[in-house]
Amino acid sequence: MPLPKAELHLHIEGTLEPELAFALAAGNGVELPYKDTEELRAAYLFEDLQSFLDVYYSLMAVLRTEDDFFELTDAYLARAAAQGVRHAEIFFDPQAHTSRGVPLATVIEGLARALDGGEERHGISTRLIMCFLRDESAESAMETLDAAKPYLHRIAAVGLDSAEVGNPPSKFREVYEAAAALGLRKVAHAGEEGPPAYIREALDILGVERIDHGLRCMEDPELVERLARERVALTVCPLSNVRLRVVDTLEQHPLARMMDAGLLCTVNSDDPAYFGGYVGDTFHAVHEALGLGEEKLRELARNSFVASFLEDDEERRGR
Ligand code: HPA
Ligand code: ZN
Q1: For the chain: N or C, fewer Cβ within 10 A?
Q2: Could you tell which of 9, 97, 271 is best to mutate to test the pocket of ligand 1, judged by most ligand atoms within 8 Å of the CB?
Q3: Which chain residues have CB less than 5 Å from ligand 2, an ion?
Q4: Model pLDDT for residues 93-118, shown as the tens digit of each residue
Q5: What is the domain-level CATH number for residue 107?
Q6: Active site residue: 192, 294, 311, 314, which one?
Q7: What is the pLDDT of residues 214-262, one digit of tens each?
Q8: Within a domain: residue 313?
Q9: In-domain check, residue 314
């Protein structure tokens, strides 16, 4: 029996397995620049975040219909359930679809149909987190938030992803203020490739509840102390960090040191179709590479529920 856990850092577009990508491409008459799944998989040798994002966005061309988004999401839930996931807070990137002419309604209705069946079909409760692409303008993010207004009942929080360096959290101050005014919760990717100062901005300027990745906090002892004191959760993605060369090897990953420093860490898969494993595989990998024993793995699993939006959602709704 895999350890019951919540997954808090998962891009639904990053669960697009090569086999499904080719099947959807055939169904939608989309031509992929790869001969077959083997050739596509061979392209998954990334130098950094940007070289991954290039493949990630280009492969999204196969996602066109509501059924495509349903199928993608239902396939993720099935895989996640098999690895012990009981609750998933799922990122999606609306601008990566609307910019290709896929309406926001198509995306959200496909995702929502799969999530609505999540409990019954897979035993997984879910939340949706709408991410803004930080390498697009703040105006585009604000337009995206506006366009999402008919679907707010479907969306728990906003997030910030894509190319980090040069796109600090402060760029999105007004958008996050507007999101909060609409009752949305807030998270942001920070301190993956970007400096510790971006983590501070995400906390102080955007007012986020959790930091996605956050591992570069380890360069700033004062920040580590603050994150530990304020019990700010970090959604760490060790396999992603290795594949995107944020760290050289899994053995050198700071996760164990982060936990020893008193940080509220969770372990997540980020983009599992691209980075070599789903969240259960990730637990196994950190056990093997970092020597995290049963007790530490249980702590990580427990943290995933503590840091989730499950805990106080009911309370918030009553307010
Ligand atoms: N970082 C930033 N943007 C992303 C990622 C990531 O790890 N995955 C998908 N979009
Ligand atoms: Zn991510």
Answers
A1: N
A2: 271
A3: 270
A4: 999 999 999 999 999 999 999 999 99
A5: 3.20.20.140
A6: 192
A7: 999 999 999 999 999 999 999 999 999 999 999 999 999 999 999 999 9
A8: no
A9: no
* 66 tagged catalytic: no
Q: How many domains does the chain have?
A: 1
284 burial level (CB within 10 Å; 0-12, 13-18, 19+) = middle
